[in-house]
Amino acid sequence: MYINRALEKQIIKASSEFACVTIYGARQTGKSTMVRYLFSDTFNYITLDDLSIRDYALRDPKGFLDFYKFPLVIDEIQKAPSILSYIKIIIDNYKEECLKENKPVKLLYILTGSNQFELQEAISESLAGRTAVFHMTSFSFSEKYKYHEQSYFNPNINVLLQKEKYVHKHRSRKEIFDDIFNGGMPEFVLNNIDRERYYNSYVTTYIEKDVKKVISASKETIFLNFMEYIALRTANQIDYTDISRNIGIDSRTVKEWISILETSGIIILLQPYMSNISDRIIKKPKIYFLDTGLCSYLARIPTAEILEKSAFAGAFYETYVISEIIKSYYNSSKDYKREIYYYRDKDQKEVDLIIESFEGIYPIEIKKGINRVSHKKNFNFLKKYNKKILNGLIIDSCEKIVPLNNEIYYCPISMIGL
Q1: pLDDT per position as a tens digit, 80-98
Q2: Of 126, 160, 352, 379, which has the fewest Cβ atoms less than 10 A away?
Q3: Beta bridge partners of 394
Q4: What would the pLDDT profile of 282-312 be if each residue is shown by its tens digit?
Q5: Domain residues for 39?
Q6: In terms of domains, do 119 and 147 share one?
Q7: Is residue 279 predicted with pLDDT exceeding 60?
Q8: CB 354 within 8 A of CB 364
Q9: Is residue 2 part of a domain?
Q10: CA–CA gap between residue 232 and residue 336 (Å, rounded)
Q11: Does 267 lie in the same domain as 243?
């Protein structure tokens, strides 16, 4: 069974504007499956996982591209980065020909890769400005449950009220934690696979095929311990010294390994909101896993029920909300790093999420329960930024949008991916 991906619309649009499309993301997020679904009738497909094909590409990249003529899908492109220089030449010559003959540019190549820290560097060196680049994640909530109307999360209360009329379906707290525990990896979601076996295989493959290329083999077990420790720190600020002390590696290695997790699509780093008064802001980023199923596996949490009752419930709930919002941005080809932050200052004032827009800033808090806060609550301490404070939200397990006061609204968690 195939579940349509929200990113499909963006990729189809780009296919009429660019000669090349590049799709990267963590392993097993469905990149190849989506590309085959969209383009199998018109594009040839090859994968550089095939050793004989890869050997040909490495030995003779020009001859390789002459033999496997476009339109062509090349999977795991980072395994033969020398191809990219020749793709650049082909694209430039093709675009010049189109310009002379006044023809529209058509899509020649679709490139996919799971090893992002290799792929990003290679793309920036060879195909900058020549390819549309997309980031693909595991299933979002809206994809998993086949919501047809999908867009990036807009916290404007009028937009949310309108969406609530035709797409919102309340989910119980138990259902939410089931989703958090299981995550959104397509193969696991669509097939009846033993959870422990699936995630064990996933982590092993990730370390052996991706991580092993950038760390020494003697450190693979330590890296796994590092991942497990980071999973328990999801939704927390990064403390490099604490991680270094507990894992037994130096702070420089911690920073390198955090970067590996980020560039391979396992985690995102949410930066603090700073605007002209950074001296009072705690500057450490917060870390979030993009797939809560993988995170709960690494944290060795055995069931959704135990997760819901554990001391980590709040952090995983927050991680789920943040990851769903980030996924909605990726699926709309929006750069979350330009709009999404958290806030915490030295006076212990804290906001889980700030979404900045041209009009002002939306302050958002995330609560795993439905315990009501005081109606006097406000975000007035953010006025020092001289930005308009737009409507605030408290995302929790409530059934529908209701006002706390005339500035802040309760928002159901099931609205975040819509």
Answers
A1: 888 998 999 999 999 998 8
A2: 126
A3: 365, 410
A4: 788 999 999 999 999 999 999 999 999 999 9
A5: 8-136
A6: no
A7: no
A8: yes
A9: no
A10: 24
A11: yes
Q: What is the pLDDT of residue 232?
A: 95
Nearest to 65 by CA among 85, 79, 38: 85
Q: Are residues 201 and 308 in the same domain?
A: yes
Taking only the tens place, the pLDDT of each residue in 339-358 is: 999 998 887 888 999 999 98
Q: CATH no. for residue 75?
A: 3.40.50.300
Model confidence pTM above 0.85:
yes
pLDDT of 338 strictly over 80:
yes
Q: Give me the mean pLDDT over the 160-174 stretch.
A: 80
Is residue 165 located within the same domain as residue 116?
no
Q: What is the pLDDT of residue 51?
A: 92
For residue 108, being part of any structural domain is answered with: yes
Over residues 271-279, mean pLDDT? 71
